[in-house]
# Entry
Amino acid sequence: MTASAVPALKMQRRSLYPGWFYAPAAAVYSVLFLAPTFASLYFSLTRWTLFDATFIGFDNFAQFFREPFLIQGLVNTVIYAVITSGLKVVIGMALAVMLTSQIMARGYLRSVIFFPVLVSTIGVGMTFTVLMHPTLGMINQTLAMIGIQGPGWLVDPKLALFSVALVDVWKGVGLATVIYIAGLVAIPKDYYEAARIDGATKLQNFFYVTLPLSRPATATVITLSFIGGLRTFDLIWAMTKGGPGFASDTVASVIYKQYQAGFYGLSTAGNVVLFILIAVLVVPLTMFLNRKQGHE
Amino acid sequence: MTKTKLFALTGASLLGLMMTANAVNAQQSGYLSFLIDNGPQSVAVAEAWVAAYTEKNPDVTIDIEVRPGGGEGDNIVKTRLATGAMADVFFYNSGSLFQAINPVQNLLPVTNEPWQAGIQDSFKSVVSAGGEVYGTPFAPAMGGGIFYNKPIYEELGLEIPKTWDEFMANNEKIEAAGKTAVIQTYGDTWSSQLFVLADFYNVLAEVPDFAEKYTANEAKFATTPAAVRGFEKLQEVYEAGFLNADFGAATYPDGLRMVATGEGAHYPMLTFGIGAIAETVPDHLQDVGFFAQPGDNAETNGLTTWMPDSIYIAKSSASPDLAKDFVGFVGSPEGCDIRNEAVGATGPYMIAGCELPADVPPAVADMLPYFQEGGHNGPALEFLSPIKGPALEQITVEVGSGIRSAADGAALYDEDVRKQAQQLGLAGW
Amino acid sequence: MRSRASMFGGIAAIAATFVVFVIPFLFIILMAFKDKQQSALRDFSWPNGFHLFDNLYEVIKTRNWMMITAFINSSLITVVSVTLLIVLAAMVGFVLARRKTRWNGLIEFLILAGLMIPPAVVPTIWLLQGLKLFGTLHGMILIQVAYNLPFSIILYRAFIATIPRELDEAAVIDGARPLDVFFRIILPLLWPVTVTNIVVQSVGIFNDFTNPLYYLPGNQNATVQLTLYNFQSQFSTAYNLLFTNILLITIPPLIVFMFFNRQIVAGMTAGAVKG
# Structure
């Protein structure tokens, strides 16, 4: 680049990265996402029939927190998000390490693990509902063959939420694995070279090189799957509808049930509650993950 | 007819001519959309009516849209009405669910239409709001009670129970014979409500003004012993271990199959299940009988009845006259005959001139005495009060699978009811 | 020694993934081949006879060939919204990565908010109605774009940060106009991350169930996931048809995957892990 070109470029920089590039995205996003979100803050304070809204102050929130199953729903939501994102991190990492090593049939393994990502959540939910049937399901019939009486995966109130979480991991771990593979591939070979010269074992390799250097991937996996877990709806709805009773209700399924019953104001209040829950948990988490990342 | 068809093919202008020519025999033309629930019964009968109607009126096109049933379906109906996107005519519940769809604002009144003259007043009362009638019955009245497997009853020499104690004693014997006594199908959560809903005749027998007081926020399920009984009955059958092993996952079709084939002896259900049995396990239709859910007193034994679902016209319909003509067709004796033909007879009709065929299935025959002279019956709560809490089905699953006690369940349901009453804007809540 | 261990590990991995991941798929496929009676048993057995074509025909013709409408609708929604997403997100990502202003903080906050905040469904319905977009394919497409923009922008922004700035400047010196710089030079360079976007978003949108459930009522608007949902109770005693349906609607995502399989990781490398 010549010296004389520089001022000319400065002049042009503005138009080279024109601000109006934001405009179309911003228009769609503000009208269809931000506007309803702001509107929800108002409607959550009303008793609403879509035709008319009666302002009732914070009654909906009071009502929402009085829902006997709401507290359980909140706890369930957090449990679900922690389990699914935790397992996706651990299993995704393990699979990625395996798939970046000199293992046989890598192409097969990679495809097979990614397959479930392609099937719709509701399809997966229906399939596993059949597989997890307490008496006729394939899982319990197989267990019965080796003399174990399988549990009521989806009908035992203590187990239902965990069963759904496992299916969520089954479906989502492929994406986590791919993100991790990308993260591992991006680690420069020199580090492993240096570790090898220092006489590091495989285990040391993993803990001192792979793990810290794949932190950006971990941050991505955690953030995405944690938020996804907190907002989860379709898998639970396809498999248990929050049941048995209210045992596997999450905030999102409680919200949906209020919507379905025509309690639009209450449902919208639930939406605001979920938003606050996510903000309270995810903002510190992202800040934590990003701060660590800056340290490296 | 063939001639008109030929004409229709030749062009729009001719079509206009033809219509005037046909005005004499009041032929209709135009387009209707028709939203129904996805029960196999509804689909079959709706298709039969549309086929018959469009054969008489070849210039009418009726497009059937199907929605899921249960809470999902309520949601779709409410949203589509609220957004003005409802089909011209649609099937929906009568009673409290009808009140919850804001009929005065959303539906076309049919109070003075000719076919309404033949509709029973007891039905009109559950599809009326603000002094106008909005609905027309498209199905027979139903009873809520208990299907039983006749071969098991014969084999074990059991009598039809008149009290709850007799019912439980029968269950003991069935269980002792190594069979499943009571079938529950919580895989379809709505089916878990039957023991509670079908007990309402017994509630009324003890507390005749329960419905008014309940609507006025003066009587509660939890504090009315007769009303808690339904929840207790649900708890008792669970605790006695009478249920099928897969009660938590089994579905409504499973339940019907089980009671028909003798995999289980009792299945609490509405009598509309007879139609589905006739369709899915026709060989066993003769094996299924029916009795009312027993109360504590044999003297007052009677049946909790359900008004049939109704066909409504949306106020947003672009062709209200055609819609009315079609609804009038459905609500006529001719409509009943087509129904009997398509899905069989499942109970008494609410339309004058509608006859049941002579050879009704045994479960229907078992139900009829409750409706006739000397029989006892009373409407379900949802036809006496506009309030039905939306979470009842989850609560009854809990009570019916030992997660929550009957008393707690009833109290929780009172909370749910309060929410619905407030949303409906009723006085006194 | 070493190679024997890794071979053992390999076989173990193949066996484990077979049980966990392949068997459920085989189950779906086997069920789709069975007749109604056999499928009612819901077991893992070889089909008695070949019923796939009968089942397919049965599923496709249900409710007046609703499946065909649904496939057309879902494909339209997916193709148009993914195209829009790619162009709009790349434009935002490009300017966001290149031009530092005091607005950047706010914009990034809004992007993160979009990932986090659950959409306010009922107000959205109310708004769509006001815009006459409720229950229309256009409305659905715009909703998909709005909801999925944040993720796509994040992927693009990270990738664009790795492209040397000199490239744009060189292009300007060569006389290219800004719009050309973006569409002719930058956008093609973004191909790896565009592939990731195509795969992730098209699979997500094609498989979306919740949003069409809320925003797209009506038979003429059915999407493939809703067919599954709508047919569920109709097929409640016909598992062969239910699984044929699942199998059928899994085919398009599978095709997308087979096309782009090799390239997905490359896009992820740049987009998701260098953030």
Q: What stands out?
A: Residues 1-25 of chain B have pLDDT under 50 and may be disordered.
